[in-house]
Amino acid sequence: MNGEVDGPEVTGGEPQAGAGRMWGLLQDLLDAHGREGTAALLGVNERTLRRAESNRHVTPQLQKELERHVEDSLSDGPSPQQLALEMTGLTSRFDGLERGTRESLDRLRQEMAELVAENVALKRRVDELEQHSSGGVGQRTTEGRGDSPDPMRTTRTALDRRYPQLVTEEAEPGEHAVYGTAMPLITEWRERRGAYLAHLDSADDWSKLRSELRMTELEIELIDAHVLTLPPSDYPWDGIRRHSELRLRRRTLERLRRERRRARVKRWLLRLVTLGWRGR
Fold it and tell me: At residue 3, does pLDDT exceed 70?
């Protein structure tokens, strides 16, 4: 075959399979550490490695160093005892993860049970309020006086609200008795909502942004602190729906606050450029 070989050669009558393994190991070291790092690792100079790469020829000395590197690597590997300890540690970590997952699932089940109980209690409260409004307040108001009842007084105290947690878009007679301490917030929310809707088609982006931001702040307070349901919903939200609505509005509030900061900078720059004539 004219003395040509396709793979690496080893002088001294070494088998071709061994030469292939040594050559593969040398290539791996060169790829991982480069020529300079491989030379330092094997204790040879870079010229020897360069010649080996050029000739695809592993000299006996280079093969010896490669074999020594393999033996050192094997001797530096973990012992069976070390492997056993590592396995024990992994087992402990797995047990910890499994225990943590189980505890998380237990907490989730507990939270779901609390939400269900809260929903049941809310429905029970609604039933009580329905019974109270249908057979109690209005009747007592009428029977308590010998003459005809005052229409305004009867309307205010006997407001028929099947679901008192629902906030209406428009004011209704007697709603102060239903909403209680939340009434000022609801009044302001209606005003801000009306201002926001009025600015939807206008070019006054600043007023629209301010109205929407304040409206969102009020909605968060009404939902979170007063457990109210906002339109257009016609049935009280359960715990899961309420948390979802809160999360959505809090994200909206963060976005609006970022937009307000950018708008303030834009207005300030506009005033600076136009000497105060614009950006008011």
Answer: no
